[in-house]
Amino acid sequence: MGGFDEVLAAAREGEGWALTQLYRAVYPRFVRYASAVAPSDAHDVAADAWLDIARSLDRFRGDEAAFRAWAFTIARRRLLDLQRSRARRRTDPVDPGDLAGAGGRGDAEEDALAAVGTGWAIGIIASSLSRDQAEVVLLRVIGDLGVDDVAAIMGKRPGTIRVLQHRAVRRLAQVLRREDVTR
Amino acid sequence: MSRWDDLPDAMRGERVDHTTLERLLRGRTAPDDAPPGYSDVASVLLAAASPPVEGELSLEAQHVAAARTVIGERTAGRPTRPRRVLAGLMVIGGLLAIPGLAAANSLPAPAQHAVSRVFDEVGISVPDTQQAPATSVDHPASTGSEISNIATTTDATGVAKGALISSTASGGKSQAGQHGKAATAHGSAPVPTPNKGGTGTPDTASGGAAHQGTATADQHSGGRSAAGSGNR
After folding, report:
1. CA gap B224, A97 in Å, rounded
2. Residue pLDDT, tens place only, B100-127
């Protein structure tokens, strides 16, 4: 996103082209992040977070990386709000076996394959890891955030995040190796 | 039973160093470049971090429009930059103009009074319209007819009557009749006696000099002059 300051200033004034750039930078990431926890509500959470960002653009100060961290802070808050309001309703976890079978191996168009592949990947992460481990991996991979940003968003120490991400990656490797054996 | 992380590395797969882990988590490691046992992990993380596809942006137009609406509502009541600058200039101009107008006594009366009081606080004298005597005296007599009524109906006379009228007209501020005393009808004030012009004799009026003219005229006329003869 070249000229982030210019884009941000124009977006604050409601310029469509600038808002489109910001939208493309965050909305798909929101959907993927939220779909790991609440697949059926992922688009609603992402849309709410997007509008929160639009309302609060005037208050944001920082560069592009800070913007992503700020945006995911808002998205995570929206996700937690949803979970609180629907505490009694079970989320619909994705069966990694189903997704794995569809992951990029069909004959559909490239976009559809990529989307399925993305869904498969997020399903694997969500179903194989603990909640904290999955969130660290998703924020790091999907949000493109550093350890310190993830620590701030999750309210944990950076050292804790490093431990969580090490364990998450090792766990993923083990789960995927098992799947290869049983496939 | 041991936890997963307590198992030997050989049973869990190889450890990855910090740099490799960072590359994996940033989706920058191709499956073929991943350490042994991590190629599938690299595939999963790459897929999760892949660029957005068309389907993920299918609501883009609606969501951007909604954001524009939200921002438009937020900025609707906010003055634009030129308006803010103009408003600031007007305020500054007003602040600079007020002392000048006040010094020239050109402000509306209430404003002039207010400014005068403010400037008085800092020792600057500015005209105050509400201190002008002709306009600010609160005349106690409600109407002239009230005074007239007192003057024609009271039983008081002389000094007492004047004091009553004066006191009524001034709302009790007048002290007429309270100091000094009225002059008596036959007082001893040294008022000079009016001249009796024309009432005395010529001799009296001239201090006796009137005889001189008579005598002279008699001498020069051989006794025929009668000047002053009837005036004795």
Report:
1. 176
2. 666 777 777 767 777 677 667 767 776 7
Cβ under 8 Å to B: A residues 122-161: 122, 124-125, 137-138, 140-142, 144
Distance between first and last Cα of chain B: 170
The pTM score is 0.56
Q: Kindly state whether A169 is in contact with chain B, defined as any CB-CB distance less than 8 angstroms.
A: yes
Rounded to 5 degrees, φ, ψ at A42 are -60, -45
Look at A125 and B44 and tell me if their CB atoms are within 8 Å. yes
Residues 6+ apart with CB under 8 A from B30: B42, B46
Range B40-45 contact pairs with CB under 8 angstroms and sequence separation of 24 or more: B40/A172, B40/A173, B40/A176, B40/A177, B40/A179, B40/A180, B41/A169, B41/A172, B41/A173, B41/A176, B43/A121, B44/A120, B44/A121, B44/A124, B44/A125, B44/A172, B44/A176, B45/A121, B45/A137, B45/A141
Test A14 with B4 for CB contact under 8 angstroms.
Answer: no
A52, with CB counted inside 10 A (0-12, 13-18, 19+), is middle
CB B112 within 8 A of CB B104: no
pLDDT the model gives residue B166: 62
Note whether A120 contacts B47, CB cutoff 8 Å: yes
Q: How big is chain B, counted in residues?
A: 232
**CB crowding A69-98: b at 16 or more within 10 Å, else e:** bbbbebbbebbeebeeeeeeeeeeebebee
- Checking if the pLDDT of A112 tops 70, the result is no
